[in-house]
Write a structure and sequence with these properties.
The protein is α/β, with parallel strands linked by helices. The protein has 3 helices and 4 strands. A 4-stranded parallel sheet has the order 2-1-3-4, covered by helices on one side. Helix 2 packs parallel to helix 3. The protein is globular and about 35 Å long. The protein starts with 11 loop residues before the first strand and ends with a helix.
């Protein structure tokens, strides 16, 4: 029997932030930065580990609700919450900006 790479530990969550692409199995889908922040705060209050944030950059019409995904990274920096992040954005400039912040503030 093969291993399931999307399997997560009990009492943990993976968050997918994207306005268009469907979330992979095992992820909680957020469309906006404010939606992601609300879910992160909910999980933290309920002692659910945020295992991974998988982020797009451009959130289309959902950017009206908190900005593009770099704003989520900024929010995490401000509160010194350095969750593991993966970027799936196709925007090279957005990716570079997000990586610059991650490389500057996230611990190795």
């Amino acid at each position: 029997m093969g291993t399931n790479q999307n399997k997560i530990a009990p009492n943990s969550v993976r968050i997918w932030l994207d306005d268009e692409r469907a979330a992979p199995d095992g992820y909680v889908h957020c469309h906006s930065v404010n939606d992601a922040i609300s879910k992160i705060e909910f999980y933290e209050q309920n002692r659910v580990t945020v295992e991974l944030l998988d982020l797009d950059h451009d959130l289309g019409d959902y950017a009206k609700d908190g900005g593009d995904a770099i704003k989520l990274i900024d929010w995490l920096c401000e509160r010194k919450t350095f969750y593991r992040i993966v970027l799936h954005t196709a925007n090279p400039v957005g990716r570079a900006n997000m990586m610059r912040t991650i490389n500057r503030y996230w611990p190795d």
